[in-house]
Amino acid sequence: QGQLVESGGGLVQAGGSLRLSCTASRIITSVFNGNTWAWYRQAPGKQRELVASISSSSTNYADSVKGRFTISRDSTRKMVYLQMNALRSEDTAAYYCYLRIHSTNADHWGQGTQVTVSS
């Protein structure tokens, strides 16, 4: 489905907000809507962890971000978002957009966007 491209990362002070975006302009609507999208993050020296996911049937969040982060998607623009509020220093990581194609169990990853939260 082509490249997944993230944007919106940057440097922000603790307590601030950022919105990450993931674009997949060449993806067809049925694939965009019919599969699971997610945001993962990975800090230096740590394993990649699931932050939030969204599908046609559910939206899920890691306990550490519940109440602060919101995942959403826009099928018209074919974009996936992660709104991050009340950011903490422990949120500092590279954030990756992810798509799981259920029919083939295929994984697609973006290249990552860096989020750095200063305290």
Order of helices and strands: EEEHEEEEEEEE
pLDDT averaged residue by residue = 95
The end-to-end span amounts to 39 Å
β-strand number: 11
Describe it.
The chain is about 5% helix and about 50% strand. It is mostly beta strands and about 120 residues long. The relative contact order is 0.31. The model has no long low-confidence stretch (mean pLDDT about 95).
Task: Briefly characterize the structure.
The chain has one helix at 29-34, and strands at 5-7, 10-13, 18-23, 36-42, 49-54, 59-61, 69-74, 79-84, 93-101, 106-109, 113-118. It is mainly β and 119 residues long.
Strand-helix topology:
Elements: E1 5-7, E2 10-13, E3 18-23, H1 29-34, E4 36-42, E5 49-54, E6 59-61, E7 69-74, E8 79-84, E9 93-101, E10 106-109, E11 113-118
Parallel strand pairs: 2-11
Antiparallel strand pairs: 1-3, 3-8, 4-5, 4-9, 5-6, 7-8, 9-10, 9-11
Index terms:
single chain; 119 residues; mainly beta; 7-stranded mixed β-sheet; 4-stranded antiparallel β-sheet; 1 helix; globular
